[in-house]
Amino acid sequence: MPKKFLIISQVFPPDPAAVGQYFDEAAQALRAAGHEVTILTANRGYDDPEQKFEAFENRSGVAVRRLPASSFGKASMPVRIFGQLSFLLQCIVRGLFQRGLTDLLVSTSPPMCGIVAVLIGWLRPSVKVHYWVMDLNPDQAVALEVFQPKHPLVKAMDWLNRRILKRASSVIALDRFMAARLRVKLERERRALAVERSRITVIPPWPMGQHAEAVAHAENPFRKEHGWADRFVVMFSGNHSWVHPLGTILDAAEQLAEDPRFVFVFIGGGKGKAEVDERIERWGHLEAGRARPAVVSLPYQPLEVIRYSLSAADLHLVSLGDHMGGIVHPCKVYGALAMARPVLTLGPQESYLNDILSEDCVGWSVAHGDVAGAVQALQAAADLSSEARSEMGARARAVVAQKFNREQLLQQFTDTVLWPADRGQKAEDRGQI
Fold first, then answer.
1. Integer angstrom CA distances of residue 157 from 46, 57, 243, 303
2. Which CATH number belongs to the domain containing residue 34 in this structure?
3. N or C, which end of the chain has less CB nearby within 10 Å?
């Protein structure tokens, strides 16, 4: 029997944020399976509130409803919180009165979206709630030392997390470290571990549809436009957040200023982008005769350009903060691998990124602060012959095809939310929990 899904996400295409793109593909998969899907999202860009989107859109059968006064940008924390609360209040009202609703799918965008799920789930007990965990708060705020562990807001959000975890028919985590953190939260409720374990499925993000095929350098208009024909392009593409530190690679770029092969490209936005732009400005003031690092800062690219921008790189950067394992999950690694490009990861030894690198020779791993190690890894990547680089890229592409296949992961996602009652045993059989 067809189901009626309501999906809540503050970001959604054409906004370029990755969370929205994943919800778009998930919604299309549910619609293709014969179910009715409605999306509630903001009518303005999350990173750029000057962008305004159509209030109503039929997106290949998925009904998109963009709500007013739902995003005012990231100018300050109060501004962000006000936009989130306005969005969530509208979602609660619409969710409570939507006729025939059978399933509610929420994530952690915005972080307080669990309030919607808890309230709607409490007042409409027949509705199945599905919780797609993209990152963890207040864990992230505590790790960044924005709040202390015993702060009242931290305790309140932890309580909310436990409520939605208890209420959810299915919980989807992005990696084993995140699943472990979620299980700890559930265990605090003193419920039977076997029961709670069956609710958590690990489904890693999949490469986006725009990443389906890499573009050769010689045929890439993005690479030609920027004059990188003979350069070794090291690229970080996506959200520049404090949880993805880039200081080590910027220091390495400074040390490699006299090596004409390298150009370092940072594409995207976010609070962490300020560090990149400040370095570029400072290097621009170096006295004459001193080599300036070749560092380029670009904004988010339109979705139709992403395939070309990602293909323009020779090496992709993926960063995970030292205390962020299981809290955030930089999904940009999958796009890099799908583009048949090696990766350089920055972060702790114990992480899902190094799970990938330890099993397959598709790149290098460096700890934050190890500038010498980063320089050595960058030089090793640039020194590879074109044949060796192609072989490494082919292995990267094969990893995606075998372990992060988009169609298989989308199918696993739809199975999880469509049949949550049967999912626990299936997950145990697959070794997912």
1. 22, 33, 19, 33
2. 3.40.50.2000
3. N
